[in-house]
Amino acid sequence: MDWTSTIGYLAASLTTLSFLPQAFKVITTQNTQGISGLMYVMFVTGLVIWLVYGLLIGDAAVSMANFLTLVFALPILVMKYRKG
Amino acid sequence: MDWTSTIGYLAASLTTLSFLPQAFKVITTQNTQGISGLMYVMFVTGLVIWLVYGLLIGDAAVSMANFLTLVFALPILVMKYRKG
């Protein structure tokens, strides 16, 4: 793998995995104060559309990265609307 | 522009613009409770690397989308570490 691809994968890993500590925090503390519900409505909707786009263009990296981010971001959205 | 590209731009617009209501909320309420600082450290670092990647591969869409997301996400990170 060349350097440019390595940089791309590093970027994708960081932005995708960044939602893991937020999901963990929201689930363990049950505290969603300060979190914008509108952000997660837009973000989760965007991820679903990214996933559709990845499938349409047949790009496994786009589909997988967005599916994984969706797995982390969806519980944040659910908790936000449960806890307010 | 074909349908597939339209779907891609819609996805990119949603995930990028989703950080705008979060930045607005954090700045206006000064409340960062519930927000994961680690999430924003990882996310902002990832965006900077995405920006570098976009410049390396000469892709204006990747560079621009990530630069814009950075503009919205950076104030959230700064506020989180100011307000705790």
From TrEMBL, chains A, B:
UniProt keywords, alphabetically: Membrane, Transmembrane, Transmembrane helix
Entry-linked Gene3D superfamilies: 1.20.1280.290
InterPro entries for the chain: PQ-loop_rpt (IPR006603), SemiSWEET (IPR047662)
Transmembrane parts of this sequence: 6-26, 38-56, 62-79
Pfam families documented for this protein: PQ-loop
Annotated compartments: Membrane
Membrane topology: Multi-pass membrane protein
Main localization of the protein described in the UniProt heading: membrane
Listed name of the protein: MtN3/saliva family
